[in-house]
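User: Need the bound-state model for protoporphyrin IX containing FE:
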Amino acid sequence: MILLLFHAVSMGLAFSTMVSAIVIARYFKTKKWWLKAHRILNIIAVAFAVAGFVFAFFMVSSTGGPHIRVPHAALGIATLVLLLVMPFLGSAIFKTKDKKAIPKLKKVHRYLGRIAALLMAATIVAGLVLAGIL
Ligand code: HEM
Ligand code: HEM
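Assistant: Bound-state model below.
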């Protein structure tokens, strides 16, 4: 039960931190601190999500149940994979030597980032239904 609480709270913190980072990238680009805040908040969000996954993994192991048994778990894995890719995609915007690739990288990062947030929201709803809260 305590692992479920830790799992849900970590994932809730990951989601709210990520949404704050996305709102900053969307509406605060005129501030000189926007990129630093966007980057740091998203790295914190990914760290919370990884911690949340570790809690889920031990929670499922402790019941002896098979892993990735329910749709929520599959959605969760897809969300986590996308979340882990996003920081690399964001850094690639600055690291690429091919200047012509920058607008494309920005576009892919923007859209995949939004998809990651939507997928995460869907996973949370599925998790709340699974836990009998919704
Ligand atoms: C985006 C946020 C979330 C992600 C990425 C996520 C991810 C996962 C993953 C990957 C598992 C399976 C672990 C395994 O099989 O080893 C899992 C299990 C579970 N999650 Fe989440 N979760 C999230 C949010 C939530 C929330 C908010 C709740 C509800 C309070 C919740 C409730 C559960 C429950 C009850 C299980 C156990 C399922 C089982 O018995 O197989 N999750 N989650
Ligand atoms: C989980 C990690 C991340 C997610 C989910 C994410 C998501 C997003 C989203 C949704 C946008 C578009 C906001 C909008 O205009 O509507 C955005 C913009 C941006 N992000 Fe990220 N981001 C992440 C990490 C990073 C990192 C680590 C960096 C840089 C080191 C970065 C650099 C940028 C830049 C430069 C933009 C502006 C792109 C443009 O001008 O179109 N992001 N991010």
